[in-house]
Each structure stands twice: as C-alpha cells, then as structure tokens.
Amino acid sequence: MSQLVMELDTREALITRIREVANGMEAFGPDFDPDVRIADPRHGDYQANGVLAWAKQKRQNPRLMAQQLVEGIQRHFDGKRVPWGKLEIAGPGFINFEMDSRWLLDWLLYFGCSDHLETAAKSIVGGRKIVVDFSSPNTAKQMHVGHIRSTVIGDVICRILEFCGASVIRDNHIGDWGTQFGILIMILKRNQVDLDSIAGDPIAVLEDLYRKGSALTQVDPSALDEARAELVKLQGGDSENLKIWRAIVDISYGEFIKIYDRLDVRFDHVLGESFYRDQVERVCSELEEDGIASESQGALVVFHPEHPRFATQPFIIRKSDGASNYATTDLATALYRHEHFAADEVINVTDARQKDHFEQLELTVRKWFEKRGRKLPVMKHVTFGTILGPDGKAIKTRSGENVKLRELLDEACERARAITAQKNPELSGAELDAISTSIGIASVRYADLSQNRSSDYQFDWDKMLSFEGNTAPYLLYVSARIHGILRKSGGVWTEPGRAANRREMSLETPTEVALAKRLMQVVVVLKQTLEDLRPHYLGAYLYDLCADFNAFYHNDVVLHEDSNVRELRMHLCASTLSILKRGLGLLGIPVLERM
C-alpha cells in the first residue's frame, strides 16, 4: 500500500511506466511524450496518443511504432504489478489502457473517503507562493451582477490552489483612487452631506451623489473646476479631503463585505490603488533610467517594438498632466508583490476587455525586472465573458441599469425558498430559511462556475434552480441522498476502508466499476483545472460523478445480504459523498444533509 501513496494520480503512474520503457528503446528515447489522457469509456480508461506525433516526426508508421512500444511494455513489466489490466492498440496508433480492478479497488479503499487524498494532493502544486488578484470593485459604487464572475472564479482558483499545496495570497485590488473622488468630494461639500449620518443604503446614496456630481460637471464649468481642485488637494495630502476619502472607502468596503460574507469569499489583503500612490514615482524613475519608458507627446509611455500592435500602441504610465493611472499603480503592485510577498506566480482575474492592458503590463514588467536583476514571477491573466440577459445582451434591469448583486442574491434565495417549500411542506421556518439560502447562493455561484469562463452565458433562473441537469440543486440533492443512505444503514458499516475482510472485496458490476473509475479521476481533473484555471472542468466532473452514482444506486442493492458486497457498496457511497463534498467545497458550495 505504501507504493500507492506515491501514485495518487494513476495517469502519472502510467506516464512514468511508459517513459521507463521508452527511455531504453532506440525508436523512442527520453524525449518521448506519451501524451496520456482520459479515454472515451467505450475504449478504455486512459489513452496514450503520443506515438502519432512521434512517428510523424520520425517519418515512421505510427501503428507499427505503437506495436513496438506495447511489446516493450509487456516484456518490461511481465509478472510485475502495474496499474492496467489490459492494453491494446486502436486506430492509427492510439494505445488504450484499461485499469486493473484490484489496483482500482486499492486506490478506492485508500484515497476514497479518508484524509489520504487531501494529504497527497498537497504535492500537486508543492508550496509555490501565488498571489490571486480578484473581485476588485470600485468604491462608491454598488457591486453589480458583473462582479460575480471575477469574485467566484478567483475564489475557486484560490481554494483549489490551497487544496493542492500552494501558499495563496488573496488580494482585492479595489479601485479607491482617481478622478471620481474629486467629483464626489465636490458634490458632498456643496450639498453639505454628513457621511456619518447617511440614512438607508449608504453606498447607493454615494453612487447617486456621484451621478449628480458628474452630470453637474458636464453643464457647469465652475463645478468641473471645483472637482479638479478637490482632487488636487486630495492627492496633495489635504487632511479634510483625506478624511472624506477614507470615510467613502470605509463605507464602500463595509457594504462589499456583506456581499462577500454571503458568498463565503475572503481576502488576505485589500490593497487598492491608493496603497501604491506614494510608490509610483519610483516606478516612473526606474523605467526612465532603464530606457524602457520615454516621453511621447508630454506623457511617459512604454512601447514594445517587437510586438505587432504594441510597437505603436503606447502603454501610458504617466499622463501628460503628470498624473499616474491604472498602469502606473499596476506596475507598482507588481514590484510590491515581488519585494514583500516574494510571489512565484501572480494571477489576475478580470474580464476579457482588459487583455491588452495585462499583456502590455507583463511585457513591461519582464523587461524592467530583467534589467534590475529581479526574479520574474509567472504572470497569468484569467479572463471571462459576459453574463447575458434573455435578449442575448449584457444583463440589465428593465430601466437599463446594472443588476445589483445584492438584489440578485436576495431574489435567488426567495426563488429557492418557494421551490423548497413546495417540495418539502413539512420543513420548519428555520429549516426552510437555512436550506433555501444555501440553495439560492449555491445556484448563483454554480451557474457561473459551470460555464467555460471564456464564454458569455445567459442568465436563466429556471435553469439554475432546477433539480435536473448540471445545476447546484441537482448536485446538492445527490449529496443529501447519500447522507440519507448512510443514515439508513443502521450502523452496519464499519469505518471506511478499514474492514478486516477488505481483501475479500471485489468490484463486480459494471456500475460499481464505472463509479470507482470516476472517483479515481478526481486527481486528473484537479490538475486539468489548475493547468487551464477553468473551474468548469471540476463542475463537469462532479456532475458526471453524480450521474454515475445514480446509475450505481438504481442498479445495485447497497444494503446487500452478503457482508463483503455490502461493505464495498457502502464504501462506494461514502467515497462518492467524500469527493463530492470536497469538490463542491472547492467550488465554495457546502453540501446539505437534508433537502
């Protein structure tokens, strides 16, 4: 069993063994990549596709080369224990592997529903220090439906990275510095607004005041001059304006926290644009000294001659009026994360419209850090599409405004309550509140996380709250069903995988085998999710896991009269619940014991 601890990922076990053989074969050698992937279940469990590309490179017949490799594998491992029970060649040179049933059972009994999976998963990322920058709303504005994507995608990336062994720093880089504060301070002073005594929703009041102030500057030149003067005073350190600014930021983040608490999202740092305001001069000076930035039409800019667009499209780091901007603070942020966090990697989660900005940022940071001899972290930009309404356009209210996130969550919980009450009229008020709140929030989160983040998706209440299909209610219902099975077992089941008769157990029925194989794929799915930073991979896996469990549950009697069969099937139930609970937890969704 100790060998299995090193082979949490059976796919990696296959790759290691194939390479062990290929390294000693003249036709392949140490550079050969077997390219092992999860296979179509009709053909096997894993498929090695690498022979085709290798044969093309060597101008050889891929099927004949696949035959050589298979024969080499069979000779090398004859009589030894290997993960596969059968391997065969298909098509022009694919090699299909079917897992050995005893290996599969041993993996299930060891990793299925114990802490071994969580312990072993820590080696996947291996202690890398990773900063994840996500959510990032602007102060003095209410969070709207558009913020859900960055917030939950970033949160899930953090959760999975931590589960897989990374040291994660969650940073909320809020927009809390800029020209909007000149307008806000101007209108607050003109209207003599006392920020300590705002009635109702304070952030909604601030947002309304900003709209009025902005409209006023469009028609009243004196108001515009006044707003500019207030901004200059703020940036110059005027104590009165700094006090007003701080109150606005505190009010705003206090409202943001209410949303984050409902979504179960947390941050280690809230280092907004204002945090870096006294560091931008250093950035500009160093970039000028290093010959990376230069003046153009009065502004300090960076061009990248090697890039087809950025050779002429400037990256402006100081405007012609001497003011810093988003690019300047992002460069200061990159430097801070290097010097204070010693980050190995930085992941920024923003919408696709900022693609050019982050590409220019990475190019600039790379040249700057190399010039100064600083270690360059891996920089990744995780983009996402738009949430659409029924008309196929960006979702809005009937009046054309952004849908407020708080109101969206309220409505989700109200709709979930109506559905839950209809299905379970016997629930008490407190139970109904707790269950409907969990389902409502989970439905909003999962509706986003189940989508390919690169794509736009249409917001559909009926679909996201359905108990059928790839939805949060369906996944939660399956978890509640398994909890019910374990309760009904009446204590006939011993501790998971610890039974004395474990060696007498065996996977027999097709649905037992299919479920066990699906459970074992969790490691591959986690790795794929991290490789592409696409949470929907994990969501799709959990949906498939639930489908396999339901097939098993409907076809095989769990509380079988044979104790060995009963023990194994109870273990399959518990393992499914364990991995479903872990997977949903990584998506920020707690399971329910009853629904």
The domain tally reads: 4
Beta-strand share of residues: 5-15%
CATH fold-level label of the largest domain: Isoleucyl-tRNA Synthetase, Domain 1
The CATH class of the largest domain, by name, is: Mainly Alpha
**Whole-number mean pLDDT:** 91
Q: Please provide the count of β strands.
A: 13
Major sheet description: 4 strands, antiparallel
Structural class: alpha/beta
- The amount of helix comes to 40-55%
Rounded to the nearest angstrom, the radius of gyration is 28 Å
User: What count of helical segments does DSSP give?
Assistant: 22
Strand order of the largest sheet: 1-2-4-3
> In the CATH hierarchy, what is the superfamily of the largest domain?
Isoleucyl-tRNA Synthetase, Domain 1
Give the end-to-end Cα distance, rounded to a whole number of Å: 38 Å
Poorly predicted ranges = 1-6, 494-500
CATH-defined architecture of the largest domain: Orthogonal Bundle
Principal-axes geometry comes out as globular
